[in-house]
DNA sequence: ACCTCCCCGTGACACCTGTCATCGCGCCGC
DNA sequence: GCGGCGCGATGACAGGTGTCACGGGGAGGT
């Protein structure tokens, strides 16, 4: 009997996944949480063996939760199950110690298998995503560029970004100009969108 | 026995919802599709009574699918089940003839109840969303403004938008300026983001 | 020590953008 | 018929934006 923890902020999806996995005779959902910062505690309390983690969650990212799990409960394995197959996510998930990475596009019947493989110590990574994350490599953005791009995501003017980070307007424009060059964009908001799609933020 | 059709582009979620709903003794999932433009055909072939429709799907929006269902198979009721509780979505869903609107945040056990109510002819609408969609009213955007905002969503410069719709650069700027005023934004990409969040696109 | 890279800043320049006033056209509704 | 409104367009202007050249400082590697 493999003991599972589910973490997804959408209650309906969480409950549905639980129903799906409980149909398998060798799997048992022993905990469900809706926030990333409740994962470690719930995993400890429920004595889970494998944690299915969504990435976009309040409190803590699924990737950060995987890292916390590796640190606090090294015996527990994590499997990232997410909507977005952003190449950068795969890389960061693996670096965070996750044992698997599947997108929510995969057929339902393959999920249980993925769980079993992860439980037995194997790595499960969506092959298309693995290839994609290899070809465009790691993020070329520096720390500042990444930060400023996240602030540019909503289309704020440079002046308000500069105020938020306590920097000169010129400096902000310089960093963003560099980011625009690295993403192949022509506008800061286009650059922000591209970086976001690739999981660089 | 209530006959259900599930439409969601994420295979895992679709399968999981099927598992969840099949646990109910009075419900039966008789069809599953991953595209909006396959809904009507599948509903007819499977003789479904209630259709659970996600909004964001390839081919056809869940809202448009609901409209097509009302036109082609008036006896079939639709229940929108979506990730995003954008106020404008609720309004458009109701106008398209949908009988219900729930977000994927709702507890799993309430979904089956929502299905039963819709099947019995009642309307099921998330109360918070209903209130929200009343207070900020219908979209104030004109057709052109809406179209240009969708092109502005990715942060394209005005010049490329103008080229795509075969309009003068000045005209595009005028329309976008109007949209910026109506959304309370200060930048076209901020306006695009706001309009998108409210379901005006 | 030297080089490289990231960070922060300034100044200047060309270009893009948002706003406004003003025009003409066509389509409704009253 | 006349006003209102959406649509397309032009011109002009202030201010925002992207780019480049050039500084200086600090951390890390050889």
Automatic annotation (TrEMBL), chains A, B:
Residue ranges occupied by any Response regulatory domain in the UniProt entry: 3-119
Q: Name one GO molecular function term.
A: DNA binding
Q: Does the keyword Metal-binding belong to this entry?
A: no
Q: Cite a single GO BP annotation.
A: phosphorelay signal transduction system
Q: Which residues cross the membrane?
A: none
Every HTH luxR-type domain range: 134-199
Kindly list the positions at which 4-aspartylphosphate occurs in this protein.
54
Keyword field: DNA-binding, Phosphoprotein
Protein name according to UniProt: Two-component system response regulator DesR
Please give the organism: Nocardioides cavernae
